[in-house]
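User:
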Amino acid sequence: MGGEIRKKNTTHLLSLNPTTQSAKRKALDVLHGLGLSDSLLRVIERRQKLDAWLAYGGMAAVTGVLLWAWWAFKR
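Assistant: Predicted structure:
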């Protein structure tokens, strides 16, 4: 039962990818229409990727510290 739900959720998330890509393209078109240059839009997109890496790295670091603390105080 749990495997079926997971498969349905994964399939649903994968089916949303074209929708999110389309929304991203439309947002970039609007920003381009407002006069923002292509280079600025690329800088913004690059910054978003860097922010995502920093967020995931921070979550991994905090998880590591919590696991270490749990292990250290468990003994």
